[in-house]
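The freezer alarm interrupted the setup, so I double-checked each line after restarting. Inputs confirmed:
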Amino acid sequence: MEDGNLLFYFFIIFFSAKIMGEICVRLKMPAIIGELMAGVLLGNYVLGIIDHTNHVLMSIAEIGVIFLMFHVGLEIRVKDLFAVGRTAVLVGILGVMFPLVLGLGSMFFLGYEFVESLFVATAILATSVGISVKVLQDLGLIKHKVAYIVIGAAVLDDIFALIVLALVKGLARGEFHALEFFLLVIEALAFVGFLTMWGPRLAGRTRRWIEKLNIPEGPFVLSVILCLGLAYLADMIGLAAIIGAFMAGIVIDELAGVYDLENKVKYVNEFLLPFFFVMMGAHLDPGAFLKPNLLFLTLLVTAIAVLSKMVGSVLACWKENWKTRIQIGVCMVPRGEVGIIVGMVGLSLHTITKDMYTVVLGMSLLTT
Amino acid sequence: MEDGNLLFYFFIIFFSAKIMGEICVRLKMPAIIGELMAGVLLGNYVLGIIDHTNHVLMSIAEIGVIFLMFHVGLEIRVKDLFAVGRTAVLVGILGVMFPLVLGLGSMFFLGYEFVESLFVATAILATSVGISVKVLQDLGLIKHKVAYIVIGAAVLDDIFALIVLALVKGLARGEFHALEFFLLVIEALAFVGFLTMWGPRLAGRTRRWIEKLNIPEGPFVLSVILCLGLAYLADMIGLAAIIGAFMAGIVIDELAGVYDLENKVKYVNEFLLPFFFVMMGAHLDPGAFLKPNLLFLTLLVTAIAVLSKMVGSVLACWKENWKTRIQIGVCMVPRGEVGIIVGMVGLSLHTITKDMYTVVLGMSLLTT
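Predicted 3D structure, all chains:
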């Protein structure tokens, strides 16, 4: 790629993502919808300015999503995960089971292959922590009990989705072997379990050693090394790289507060993330929605995604009053970035078709 | 590039750059020497882990150097540029003239072509602001008059070097035409002059508008857009992209303080910059220094670089006492990153040979 061209791509991607983001925020929609729309506009199917097969831009998008998951991991406190209590766990589990079973069932019923159905089901079972928190803020409920339950449940759902994604990814790569499936579950549980239980303690013990570092911004540098290292490790053992990055965020939980890492990683994220959303948007062919059956499928998947999640969530908190139950149900709906990530992984493994990616992306946009 | 491979490269580059950086800092050397050495080790000529022709990694290195120059621009206050007075300007000008004339003269005398000689002369006329400031801090002189003169002069030298680089780049691309040369000078002066004189004022007036932005981190986002935009513009009109990025830093000078932009850009920089230094190091063939004539040339160029800069600087501040004059002379020696940037531009334009790049890089390492 020519020097000037590269700069042009960087400028136009960053610029249009942010302009569209600003427009969406003013229309009271999340900024990421604007960034995705910018990608759709710039992509091959509309203006043709950005080539979604461009190697350099896709690589930067990949690093962008790794930093996104790292940042989400940094935002989550392990203690809160353990403290939210039974209701959150129940909302989380039922909020995953209903979409999974309903999604898988209806896709299978419609005649799709098992792995492809599973991908769609995985995409609809996630809940976006970031967007849920935003919705709660807008409703003025952020200090309310509802917020704690929703955030706890959403975090659990994201972890569930990531584990299921790891499994599905393993399945998609090879044939379906019971042993392989079993090994992947063990690997995923061991990786996630070990890092969740012991990671933060181990990280806490390195503090004295970190203080001795002489390079500028030592803690920030170490956290980035851990993020890239665990992402690579997770990818190597057959899990998704994003899970490794997410776990890196969980692991340095305690240190994050001391060294204000969340705020420092945020700026790397702010720079890289638009490339991810724009490149994801560029993969979407808006013309596909003109096909009636694809439009129908998108609306169907979206309806399943919304209803199954709400029913699961509302059932799970039967002890609460109706108002609280409805609030929790509504707040669990947005799928946001995790749904898009699932779609991207499926597309890159050629497990789901481009049409199906369009459906998943459409669903993510609609629920968000 | 495979997903896993990309992550591996990212991890190994970032990790080894920082490890080597830490070792260098402990040995009382600047961290960037460690990052370059990491690149030399990982590169094709030693371990062969990193391929310096890798497109994705070189693109990230390019964005890294753009953010470096943006950050340098943010660190410089336009007011200070005008306030340092005649001594700084004189030190700056003589500190540029001596290396330029001596460098060009001796290279030409040794039988090199005009453009190649000019590249070497350009590489030795720069002074590294960042490293000079570090040296001043180590000497406990940062609040002393010497510091103001050196920083002022170093800034001027960097701008001179960048303008000369832009001219040389133009020369290297086409044949030598007096008209073209003249147009480039006008363009460079107009671009740099307009942005220096009017840029900060224009940027200051946008404050009310910036406050109205709804997207998160609006000021940071706008500053990145300006950086990428001016870098692209500078590249398009025939100047180097890094000059555009540097000028973007100068332009948002006033706003930088208000929104703490320097600190925010720092983290993007911390992440991207190691890729630049490592990839630059990977281009160096340490075996080349085994050739006696190349080793001789490196030492000669380094000697010219050190002596000419010191003589120029010391002559310029004849009004000061001897101690101050020597201090100023010593502080002006480090070439650091700007020398490497000049070398890289020359190499990418095929104007200087790989051997000559090795010489320039060796000089940069030795003076730093």
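Quick read of the result. The two ends of chain A are 35 Å apart (CA to CA).
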